[in-house]
Design goal:
417 residues; mainly alpha; two-stranded antiparallel sheet; 17 helices; 2 strands; 1% strand; disordered C terminus
Amino acid sequence: MSALAQAQAGEARHRRLTISHAAIKRGALWLLTAVSGFALIEPSPYEFVFLVALLVYALTGIRFSQKLLPMMTLLLIYNIGGVISLVPWMDDPASVRFTAVSVYLMLTALFFAAIMTEDPLGRLETLRKGYLFAAWCAGLAAVLGYFDVGGLSGVFTYASRASGTFKDPNVLGPFLVVPLIYLLHAVLTGRIGLAKGFLLMSVPLLALFLSFSRGAWGNLVASTLLMTGLTFLTSTSTAQRARIVFLTLVSLVLVVVLLLIALSFEPIRSVFEIRASLDQSYDQGVTGRFGNQLRSIPMLLELPNGFGPLRFRWFFPEDPHNVYINAFASYGWLGGFAYLALTAATCIAGWRVAFRRAPWQGHAIVLWSVLFVTILQGVQIDTDHWRHFYLLLGLIWGLAALPSPAASDQRSLRTTT
């Protein structure tokens, strides 16, 4: 009896230790996404917390699936191309910093992919909660700054647009799309009520609108449509499909009403009319944004190493605002083709995981809806240094590398028999 009691006590201690490790890991993930919205300074808190999270997982155990090798290989080649293109410009601190950030973001994507090998559902929920916290902090700062509460407009706005805890409204807006789509998905699937869902969406949604980022508006609309369509198609219940249709219509009406209320204020309406126009002066003509992109292609076809990191602006008035052209301009042919291959491989993996029956399918639908739209959005903005892009990239690959629950059950059954 004494030996049995000792064995049970040892097992209980081991169980407590395991729970403690799991709690520490989840806590590190929550903190990592919770600080992801604070990007006014560089290095940001996210960089420091990522090192802490990486250390926690390295000490308590992290595995890397062989199915992640395509992503790892393509990201590595992409960054090797960037390093090669950097060689002539090693004396430029800005170019060196740009390349170093690219390598660092590659590591974050690999980290997020690797942590999905264990406790994926629990870790996804933790990341979701941390992200929502970050969205509220960034969104609240943006709203307070836009309305100059406490004289905060000088800190949390940029050119009459809400930027919150980001330097650029065009980065704040897309950052807020992920939690908004998560909340809308929870409403459509009945996890939370409509009133609670819109209450939680209120501040991030208002902040996204006040960022006056056309890309963010389009990202939100397209991600919403894709998420709603995927949720409807993958639903196994007629009642749930009816709920999705009904709540989608109700949500649409509420958004239109809120938009009309917002536009009743002259300062908001005047900026909205300017930003909502697709006919922007800086986009037009041979020397406009899209004209510069087209003129750069023949030049890049003659330069295997591209222009060099951040050198596009040396040939043209501004950055390319196209992540695919920037891949060839800043990372050379090697990096450019690797990025195109990574994009294609990610699309294959993403569509597969979105339709795979699994406990985390809802998460996969939300993450892939935003990531796919962000991939498309890359034709009009540089997304290669967005932290949340690499978060989404890593998570989608991590989920795609997981075996289906049915396959896992069959293997377990064969092992026990």
